[in-house]
Design goal:
Shape: globular
Number of strands: 4
Helix content: 40-55%
Structural class: alpha/beta
CATH superfamily: Phosphoenolpyruvate-binding domains
Number of domains: 1
Order of helices and strands: HHEHHEHEHEHH
Number of helices: 8
Distance between the termini: 33 Å
Strand content: 5-15%
Largest sheet: 4 strands, parallel
CATH architecture: Alpha-Beta Barrel
CATH class: Alpha Beta
Length: 181
């Protein structure tokens, strides 16, 4: 039986109840069901998981918003644990990011993380990443917040500044994103 409470509200409740909240990565509905059976209260859907498991591709930004939303629908349709979903760079500029958030909510996601890499992105643990200026990342977060149709939908800012600019820049970026929403 699916819950009538929004996915975002269910994630916020899980975060309040479990500290730290552990979110195992899942790649499809079956792995999500196994994670639920193992007792997890929320799940993570990575961009790499969608690219690798659904298409046999590396995590190099080759999957589309539609591809990711289809996996969200499949997973959220099988069970009602809240999903944190990798939104990569948001599939474009401000209006695209707003659309990404709206589509993620419609598909059943509880949260997303948006990263600060340039759009020709690389997998987060690979070398050679390039990031957008801090102001552009703040604009991405503001756009994501403005795109919410569920006020409980959680927006997470993910930065690769540590690898590119060092710890001080990463902390500064994170603080600016937190202030943005």
């Amino acid at each position: 039986m699916m819950s009538q409470v929004s996915a975002g509200a269910r994630l916020r409740a899980a975060m309040a109840a479990e500290k730290p909240l552990q979110l195992p990565g899942v790649i499809n509905a079956y792995s999500a069901l196994l994670a639920r059976e193992a007792g997890f209260k929320a799940l993570y859907v990575s961009g790499a998981g969608v690219a690798n498991a659904s298409f046999g591709l590396p995590d190099l930004g080759m999957t589309s918003l539609t591809d990711v939303c289809e996996d969200i629908r499949r997973i959220s349709g099988a069970m009602d644990l809240p999903l944190l979903v990798d939104a990569d760079t948001g599939w474009g500029a401000v209006f695209n990011i707003q659309r990404t958030v709206k589509e993620f909510i419609r598909a059943g996601a509880a949260a997303c993380h948006i990263e600060d890499q340039v759009q020709a992105k690389r997998c987060g643990h690979r070398p050679g990443k390039a990031i957008v200026p801090k102001g552009d990342m703040v604009d991405r977060i503001k756009a994501a917040v403005d795109g919410r149709t569920d006020p409980d939908f959680v927006i997470v800012a993910r930065t690769d500044a540590l690898a590119v600019e060092g710890i001080d820049a990463a902390v500064e970026r994170a603080a600016a994103c937190a202030e943005a929403g």
